[in-house]
Amino acid sequence: MDKRTAAGKKNQKKGSEGSKKLMEFSLFVFLVLAISYILVTFVTQRTRVNGTSMESTLYDGDNIMMDKLSYRFRSPRRKEIVCFYSANKKEILIKRIIGLPGERVKIEKGSIYIDGKLLNDYIGGLNYAGIAAEEIRLGEDEYFCLGDNRGASIDSRYAEIGNVKREDMLGRAFLLYYPFNRIRIVK
User: Fold this and answer.
1) Catalytic status, residue 95
2) In the chain, at which end, N or C, are there fewer CB atoms within 10 A of the end residue's CB?
3) What is the mean pLDDT, run by run of 10 residues, along the chain of 187 residues?
4) Of residues 94, 87, 72, the one with CA closest to residue 173
5) Whole-prediction pTM value?
């Protein structure tokens, strides 16, 4: 075998190794993009807090991730922070679940009553009862939601929001990821 033939085979071998590495890298990038798409589309969604209604838990401008998957396997729970569409479907609202389907909710003298029993609500600040001044019976797919900053929250107490239907819920807020100095699990 002459030197040119040996050098040609060596270069051909290097070329096929380079092609193999390029294919492996391309497959890796494709898999990362596919998994990212699945996560963002079906499992999580990023949203931004707009306004002061959830202070001191979440602040205006905070960026959170919502879990869109868990409510496919279980029902939303009291005290979870949920993201849902407003009645006109133009904006995403973020509030805390207070009343569950089938329950009766009433706000009287600054306290919340569920089925006639006082709810030990650590947040307080309920100076305005709104439509909940009269007892509200939640439907089988309805939730009563309040902001944590009750004095500055437009929530289920207001007729324009009212009871939140399950079908309007996008998911549960679970991670505050920006600003970086406040990264934490949302509770």
Assistant:
1) yes
2) N
3) 53 69 87 80 83 92 92 93 84 94 94 93 82 96 95 92 92 92 90
4) 94
5) 0.79
